[in-house]
C-alpha cells in the first residue's frame, strides 16, 4: 500500500492544480493577458519545482517502488532533466497549436478551454503510451536502440519539414469522419444546422490538438527513456511539463515567430537523447551533464532567435 502513496499524492496534486486553474484562474473564460500568462507560467514552473520535494521525500523514505535503486538526489535530478526535455520538445508543439487555432478560426476567449481539455486528454493518453513504452523497453532486448534510431530520424525530419501548415492540413482529414460546421455557436462543441446535429469548429480544433499531442508524445516519451525508466519520474515530469505548456502558449503566442532558431535547439536535444539511448548499455552519461546540455541548448536557441529578430526589425525600419 505504501508504494502507491506517492502516486496518490501526484494525482491529488495534479487535480488540485487543474481545478484551481479552471475554476479560479479562468472562471470567467476571458482571453489571457500577457501579464496573467507570465504569472500562470511561473505558477506552474514553481509547482513543478515544489514537486521535487515530494520526489526527494518519496525516495528518501523508501515508500515508492524504486526499480532503478535511485538515491533521492539522483531521482530529483532525473525528474528535472525529464521535465526540461519534455518542456523543450513541447515548444515545437506551441507553433502547431497556434496554427490549429488560426486554421479553425478559434477566438482567444475559447482557446483556454480547448487547451484545458487537451491537457485532460494528454494525461490519459500519455499514461497509456508511457506504460506501453516501459513494457517494450523492459521486455524487448535492444528496444532502447530502436527508440534512439526513431528519435534520430525524427530530429532530421524536423529540420527538413517545410511548414507546419501542410502538416495541419494533413491532420484536418480527421474531420471528414464527422458532420462538421465552421459555426462556433457561442463556444459549443455541438450545434444544430437545418435541423441536424453537427460538430462545431471548436470540436474540430480539439480533435486536432489531441491527435497532434499523440504525435508529439511519440517523440517526447522515448526521449525521456534516455534519462530514466522509472515510471513515477517519467509520468510526473511529463505531466507537469504539459500543464505548464498551456500558460506558456499564452505567454509566447504573440512572440512565437521570433523563436525561429529554437528548432535547432530541439534538434540538438533530440540528437543527444537518441545517442544517449543507443549507447546506454556501453556509456554512462551523468545526468548533470544531460541537464546542463539541454539548458544550454535552449538558452542559445532563445538568445540567437531574439538577436536575429531584433536585427530583422532594424533592417525593416
How would you sum up this structure in a few lines?
By secondary structure, the protein is an all-alpha fold.
Annotate the secondary structure layout.
Blueprint lengths: L4 H21 L8 H27 L11 H32 L4 H32 L3 H18 L3 H8 L18 E4 L2 E4 L1 H24 L6 H22 L9 H17 L8 H30 L1
Helix pairs in contact: 1-8, 2-3, 2-8, 3-7, 3-8, 3-9, 3-10, 4-7, 4-8, 5-9, 9-10
Description:
- The chain is mainly alpha-helical.
- It has one domain (2-316).
- The protein is built from ten helices and two strands, in the order ααααααββαααα.
- The protein has a two-stranded antiparallel sheet.
- Helix 4 packs parallel to helix 7 (201-224).
- The termini are far apart.
- The model is unreliable at 162-166 (pLDDT under 50).
Question: What are its keywords?
Answer:
two-stranded antiparallel ribbon, single chain, mainly alpha, 10 helices, 317 residues
* Portion in helices: over 70%
Number of E-type strands: 2
Q: What value does the average pLDDT take?
A: 80
- SS content category: mainly alpha
Largest sheet: 2 strands, antiparallel
Beta-strand residue fraction: under 5%
Kindly provide the radius of gyration, computed on alpha-carbon positions and rounded to a whole number of angstroms. Answer: 20 Å
| Count of DSSP H/I helices | 10
Return the domain count: 1
- Measured between the Cα atoms of the first and last residue, the distance is 66 Å
| Global morphology | globular
In spatial order, strands of the major sheet run 1-2
Amino acid at each position: 500500500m505504501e508504494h502507491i502513496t506517492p502516486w496518490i499524492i501526484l494525482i491529488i496534486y495534479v487535480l488540485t492544480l487543474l481545478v484551481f486553474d479552471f475554476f479560479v484562474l479562468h472562471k470567467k473564460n476571458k482571453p489571457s493577458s500577457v501579464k496573467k500568462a507570465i504569472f500562470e507560467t511561473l505558477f506552474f514552473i514553481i509547482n513543478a519545482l515544489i514537486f521535487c520535494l515530494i520526489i526527494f521525500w518519496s525516495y528518501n523514505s523508501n515508500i515508492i517502488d524504486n526499480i532503478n535503486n535511485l538515491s533521492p538526489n539522483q531521482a530529483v535530478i532525473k525528474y528535472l532533466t525529464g521535465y526540461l526535455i519534455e518542456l523543450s520538445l513541447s515548444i515545437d508543439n506551441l507553433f502547431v497549436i497556434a496554427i490549429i487555432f488560426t486554421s479553425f478560426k478559434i477566438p482567444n476567449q475559447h482557446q483556454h478551454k480547448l487547451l484545458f481539455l487537451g491537457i485532460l486528454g494528454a494525461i490519459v493518453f500519455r499514461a497509456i503510451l508511457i506504460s506501453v513504452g516501459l513494457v517494450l523497453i523492459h521486455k524487448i532486448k535492444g528496444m532502447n536502440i530502436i527508440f534512439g534510431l526513431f528519435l534520430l530520424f525524427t530530429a532530421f525530419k524536423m529540420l527538413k519539414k517545410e511548414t507546419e501548415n501542410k502538416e495541419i492540413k494533413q491532420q484536418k482529414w480527421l474531420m471528414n469522419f464527422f458532420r462538421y460546421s465552421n459555426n462556433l455557436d457561442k463556444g459549443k462543441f455541438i450545434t444544430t444546422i437545418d435541423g441536424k446535429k453537427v460538430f462545431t469548429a471548436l470540436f474540430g480544433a480539439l480533435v486536432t490538438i489531441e491527435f497532434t499531442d499523440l504525435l508529439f508524445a511519440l517523440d517526447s516519451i522515448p526521449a525521456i527513456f534516455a534519462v530514466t525508466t522509472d515510471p513515477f519520474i517519467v509520468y510526473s515530469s511529463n505531466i507537469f511539463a504539459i500543464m505548464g505548456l498551456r500558460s506558456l502558449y499564452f505567454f509566447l503566442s504573440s512572440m512565437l515567430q521570433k523563436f525561429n532558431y529554437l528548432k535547432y535547439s530541439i534538434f540538438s536535444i533530440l540528437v543527444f537523447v537518441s545517442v544517449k539511448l543507443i549507447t546506454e548499455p556501453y556509456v554512462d552519461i551523468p545526468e548533470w551533464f544531460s541537464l546542463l546540455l539541454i539548458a544550454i541548448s535552449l538558452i542559445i536557441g532563445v538568445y540567437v532567435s531574439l538577436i536575429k529578430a531584433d536585427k530583422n526589425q532594424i533592417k525593416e525600419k
